[in-house]
Amino acid sequence: MLLAAYAAGAATSLALALLIGGRVFAAMKRSLGAGEWIRRGLGAAVLAAVVVIALGLDTRFLTPVSLASTAPLEQQLVDKLRPGPHAGAARSR
């Protein structure tokens, strides 16, 4: 009896997979065209970025755009991580 119930469940899930699987596969097949165009667009963007970097145009663009100075932040980090004057004396003893 248990084996028959298991077989019925397996047959039901297989039938459902066959019925719905065809529709899902067809939908995935249709969406592959859009994915291909997205991949081509991203590839073109990467090639354009390589050309821009090779010509040195990125430095001309990024230098005026980068207005934020990181020196104060870097100095704060160095001050926090640098051992105090007493810590160096204690280590040398």
Quickly give the structural class: mainly alpha
**Strand runs, count:** 0
End-to-end distance: 83 Å
Order of helices and strands: HHHH
- How much strand content do the residues show? under 5%
Fraction of helical residues:
over 70%
Shape: elongated
From the structure provided, what is the oligomeric state, counting identical versus distinct chains? single chain
Largest sheet descriptor:
none
Q: How many domains make up the coordinates?
A: 1
What is the residue-mean pLDDT, rounded to a whole number? 78
Low-confidence stretches: none
Give the radius of gyration.
Answer: 32 Å
Q: How many helices?
A: 4
SSE topology:
Layout: H1 2-55, H2 57-65, H3 71-81, H4 85-92
Q: Features of this protein?
A:
93 residues, mainly alpha, elongated
Notes on the structure:
The protein is mainly alpha-helical and 93 residues long. It has one domain (2-84). The protein is built from 4 helices and no strands. It has helices at 2-55, 57-65, 71-81, 85-92. The longest helix is centred in the first third of the chain and has 54 residues, at 2-55. The N and C termini lie far apart (83 Å). The model has no long low-confidence stretch (mean pLDDT 78).
What's a concise summary of this model?
The chain has 93 residues and is an all-alpha fold.
